[in-house]
Design brief:
A: about 450 residues; alpha/beta; seven-stranded mixed sheet; three-stranded antiparallel sheet; 11 helices; about 15% strand; B: mainly alpha; two-stranded antiparallel ribbon
Chain lengths: ~450, ~600
């Protein structure tokens, strides 16, 4: 309770005037210059870690049971075949649940003293995506963490900086603009890739037809592009150029393609295919800096250890295991793990100790676990501890000496990526300052430095 | 820690300037935004110069007088073709069919524009377009609280109000006072929708959110700031009107909702009003909500922020609806929103961000502040017109689009400078909304395809008719397309019509967009039928331009196109069709 008022981040989140139907803000941009000068860092002393070039964020939607994933305890609730094993640094995993991840236990950094502000999916999910509390008045203005990272780290690569995979209804760039919006590529279809990167309706001549069409378009549109009637029209010229540059580019297309063998190895699932695309994007290094991957199926209220149940815990856990275990192994083998921060978390934990009467676990916000790997995070490390049933944090395990909150996780991600997490942007639609991490400027939230050692 | 938080709460209560969330530096930067308004006020004025356009109504009289006074050059009147496309999109959300374009361009009557406006205002398309507009503003969407049945009822209720042009005052009152089951009474879903998104929170947060929504949408100004703290110490340099307003005053307005409660039942939520109840500061300790703690002991009685009026009877919600809708600001805000939708920006802009202390010329703001209201007299006359015409939205739209000011070209005239937008001295192009773009492509290519929505017996031919942005639920191709084009879901994502790389890739390469330009299942596409017609090449090109861009090609364009002919006629015509669908003057409503 003592820290609950920290949740009072009521500034920086007022509603938009212009995103309402209709007023696209075109005229405003001519009248009022949007300038980077309005982006400020509150604390000059801040030194981001900068150990990662890219981040793969795996959102375990529904709220995974910390007790049955990354913070297992001995207790009668464990299925008889759980086979919980201890690894160096205090990492514990069920070999039955995570056979693949167990092989890379030495690369995992497990944060166990994490606490959620929320116990409801929608608000919790909002926190995971934005690092901010959901205030309906400002909800739509706050951009996704990935969009902030994209704005900070977008380079000259042809791929958009922010990918969103296997996610329905995820948040976007909001006022940061379309350039930083997530590219939501399809992940099904056996790795055929992103279908809009090609013009494929004319058989073998498709590309030639496209080139002819595009040339005709440019020629017919030249007068308007040279003398657009307002800023909104002027913006299109750059966007056409960027979109066109992504087409017929083998390196861009190959990010979305993978072999049948890889598809099988990663588990032939939504999360598996998504992490294959994430792996490719990181290895190709052609623009993507934040790859958001969502995996549903963690809301295990009932019969969670019954593999036949449609919402069985194992369905989600085993898919994650194969995909994430192989991702870490692949990135390690190709030498990209050190520069890629992998973060895995849901919106909250689940009720501790014994299962509920329906054989499942319900929402629980006092404890949850966050799994990190790569990108400068130490391997074979645990931070913080909970009691024997996973019901309370007994050791916070970090310099903050209090539970780690989603804001701290966000600050940790920003820091790893070399981004000043105390920054804020004044020029928002509502005129209310957007803080990357609310309260960070005053030191209320901080990166978990212990992750990096 | 406990001490610190208590201090924080007290600090906010007192409106402490040292609020850590909004430090002085941040406030100072926010003030930059206001500089835009001052710049406008201080814009170097040209020599007074006559505007040659005739005055169709008082909109023209007012706008042209301001332009003449300040020597602002006016754009030329739009051409008939430009006018037709613009008015069709703004009134119906769809581009005109080629036969309509042809007939309109041939029509020699001097009042043909007014006739066209009248015909569009009475069309089914008008109902579609403006139901979508209000649906977007009221966020008519389905989600965890709003059931399919509830959504359909809410949509049908709103659609009926738009179609019959029910007095705006009347239907907004009905909305604000609706009660009963959300599954049976359409407008009740307005409240269900407000609950959604927040599964647990104290009732006070629901009431406070409703208050801010009502002041923003129906009175034009946000009150969110003072829902957490007094204006003093926070808003001095941002909003003159809200600065002396207090959190207590906000609660007094919010207290009008405090007899409203909802009951979750198996068949949906119900909203009922009690005879008793009041706004107190007591919230559940484990769910303190999103705002700083309220004062436990304080019981707040309803009083309206703008004029201190108190409820005259026990039905506080009904009293609130009466007090809100009978305030003149209710009419002002409404006409300004409509104006902004048609002109691209409000007379007071943004239309949901009024500073009520900077809009009335009788009480000008102190030095250093600019009037936010660029045309005060015009705004009052619009409000008068609205009220005198029984709060008819259609009559305000009719008035505006009949003005020559609205019918001016969007091409910047000689001497145009940034900042002159506020004179409305030329039209501002806007990108077509996602639904408009999708439907325009279908109309241009003659490939309208019905989509089915659960609960409706007839399919929809246009996406602008869909009852909510989650539809068509059963057609992921259409849904994905509209998403790529920026429709938003009005839950997590607002509508966003700015360009995006994905949107352009979609527009250029997606099956749904490309195939329309040459071959589309059972129907003949425009390119196919023109290719198979006995028109000569030049005439076929003219027809394709007419159907897609609502205009004829220029001589230069014709030359480029005829030069590009290659292969069979259907091949080069479909290439041209594709290019036209991606042209800026297709993507924009000029």
């Amino acid at each position: 309770m003592q820290t609950d008022l920290l949740n009072c981040g009521w500034h920086g989140r007022h509603t938009r005037r212009h995103f309402l139907f209709g007023a696209a803000g075109a005229s405003a941009s001519l009248l009022m210059a949007h300038s980077d000068a309005e982006v400020t860092s509150a604390r000059n002393a801040v030194t981001p870690r900068g150990s990662a070039r890219a981040c793969i964020f795996i959102n375990l939607a529904g709220g995974p049971s910390h007790l049955d994933t990354f913070d297992p305890k001995d207790g009668p609730w464990n299925p008889p075949d759980a086979d919980i094993r201890d690894y160096s640094g205090g990492v514990r995993l069920s070999r039955y649940t995570f056979p693949t991840l167990s092989n890379v236990a030495g690369d995992l950094c497990v944060l166990r003293s994490v606490r959620s502000w929320e116990a409801a999916h929608e608000r919790g999910q909002y926190y995971v995506e934005t690092g901010h509390p959901l205030n309906p008045a400002f909800a739509n203005e706050v951009p996704h963490i990935g969009a902030v990272v994209a704005k900070e780290k977008a380079g000259s690569g042809k791929l958009p900086p922010f990918l969103g995979l296997n996610a329905n209804g995820m948040r976007g760039a909001s006022f940061l603009g379309g350039r930083y919006a997530p590219l939501q590529a399809p992940v099904w279809g056996e790795g055929q890739g992103l279908y809009t990167l090609k013009h494929e309706f004319y058989g073998a001549t498709s590309r030639q037809v496209f080139d002819e069409k595009f040339a005709l378009l440019e020629s017919l549109d030249a007068p308007l592009r040279q003398a657009p009637f307002n800023q909104a029209m002027a913006d299109y010229t750059d966007f056409y150029r960027q979109a066109r540059s992504m087409m017929y580019d083998d390196a861009v297309a190959s990010v979305f393609q993978f072999s049948r063998e890889d598809n099988r190895r990663y588990g032939n699932s939504g999360i598996g295919n998504s992490l294959l695309i994430a792996r490719n994007a990181v290895q190709k290094n052609n623009g993507a800096v934040f790859i958001w991957v969502s995996q549903p199926g963690w809301d295990t209220h009932d019969k969670m250890f019954d593999p036949a149940h449609y919402l069985s815990f194992y369905l989600a856990a085993w898919s994650l295991d194969r995909a994430l275990g192989n991702l870490i192994a692949d990135l390690k083998a190709s030498g990209h793990l050190g520069s890629t921060l992998i973060v895995t978390m849901g919106e909250f934990g689940r009720t501790p100790g014994a299962l509920n009467a329906r054989g499942g676990r319900d929402h629980y916000r006092d404890c949850m676990s966050v799994l990190m790997a790569g990108g400068g995070a130490r391997g074979g490390v645990t931070i913080g501890a909970t009691d024997a049933t996973g019901s309370q944090i007994t050791d916070t395990g970090w310099h903050g000496n209090r539970p780690i909150y989603p804001e701290d996780v966000a600050a940790t991600i920003y820091s790893a990526l070399g981004i000043d997490w105390t920054k804020s942007i004044a020029d928002t639609p509502s005129s209310r300052r957007f803080f990357y991490v609310e309260g960070a400027a005053e030191g209320q939230y901080e990166p978990v430095w212990e992750v990096f050692g | 820690m406990r001490l610190a938080t208590a201090f924080l709460a007290l600090g906010l209560w007192a409106g402490d300037a040292s609020c850590p969330r909004y430090p002085e530096a941040a406030r100072a930067a926010d003030v930059v935004r206001l500089a835009g308004q001052r710049e406008f006020a201080a814009m170097p004025k040209g020599r007074p110069a006559a505007i040659g356009l005739p005055r169709a109504n008082f909109v023209d009289e007012q706008l042209f007088a301001a332009m003449e006074r300040d020597g602002v050059p006016a754009a030329a009147l739009s051409s008939d073709a430009e006018f037709l496309r613009r008015v069709s999109l703004d009134l119906t959300g769809r581009i005109p069919q080629p036969a309509e374009v042809d007939a309109f361009l041939r029509d020699g009557r001097s009042d043909k524009r007014a006739r066209m406006i009248e015909s569009l205002l009475g069309s089914e398309g008008y109902t579609d377009r403006w139901t979508l507009y209000f649906g977007n503003r009221l966020r008519v969407t389905r989600n965890s609280r709003v059931t399919l049945a509830g959504r359909n009822l809410f949509h049908a209720w709103l659609r009926d109000a738009v179609r019959r042009d029910r007095p705006y005052k009347e239907w907004v009152s009905e909305l604000l006072t609706s009660s009963g089951s959300a599954a049976q009474n359409g407008p009740v879903n307005f409240f269900a929708r407000h609950i959604t998104g927040i599964e647990f929170y104290p009732r006070q947060d629901l009431w406070d959110n409703l208050t801010d929504f009502v002041t923003t949408q129906f009175l034009g100004f946000k009150t969110e700031c003072i829902s957490c703290h007094n204006g003093r110490g926070h808003l001095e340099r941002i909003n003159l009107f809200l600065t002396p307003r207090t959190r207590l005053q906000f609660w007094e307005t919010s207290a009008f909702w405090s007899r409203l409660s909802y009951v979750a039942t198996g068949s949906g939520d119900s909203f009922v009003d009690g005879e008793t109840g009041a706004y107190t500061g007591v919230t559940p300790p484990d769910e303190p909500g999103m705002r700083p703690l309220r004062h436990n002991a304080l019981v707040t009685s309803p009083r309206f922020l703008l004029n201190g009026e108190e409820p005259a009877g026990p039905d506080w919600r009904a009293e609130f609806a009466r007090i809100v809708t009978s305030n003149r600001q209710f009419a002002r805000a409404a006409v300004n929103y409509i104006w902004a939708e048609l002109f691209g920006s409000g007379i007071v802009d943004p239309p949901g961000g009024w500073d009520l202390a900077r809009v009335d010329p009788a009480t000008p703001p102190p030095a250093g502040w600019a009037m936010q209201n660029t045309h005060p007299e015009l705004l009052e006359r619009l409000a008068d017109h609205f009220i005198q015409n029984q709060y008819s939205v259609r009559s305000v739209i009719r008035l505006i689009v009949n003005s020559n000011a609205w019918q001016m070209s969007s091409r910047p005239p000689q001497g145009w400078k940034p900042g002159m937008e506020r004179y409305f001295a030329k039209h501002e192009p806007r990108r077509l909304y996602a639904e408009e773009l999708f439907d325009a492509a279908a109309i241009a290519t003659n490939t309208e395809t019905p989509v089915y929505v659960s609960g409706f017996s007839e399919p929809f031919l246009y996406t602008g008719q869909l009852p909510d942005p989650a539809e068509p639920f059963n057609d992921f191709r259409v849904r994905d397309g509209l998403r790529e084009l920026g429709r938003g879901d009005w839950l997590n994502q607002e509508r966003d019509s700015r360009p995006s790389v994905l949107g352009l890739l979609y527009q250029m390469n997606a099956w749904d967009m490309v195939v329309r330009s040459f071959e589309w299942g059972p129907v003949l596409t425009r390119a196919q039928s023109l290719a198979g017609s006995n028109l000569n090449d030049e005439e076929a090109v003219r027809q394709l331009y007419l159907a897609t861009l609502t205009r004829l090609p220029t001589a230069a364009e014709s030359a480029v196109v005829l030069q590009s002919r290659k292969g069979r006629r259907v091949e080069w015509l479909s290439r041209l069709q594709w290019a036209l669908l991606n042209k800026l003057d297709f993507i924009f409503n000029l």
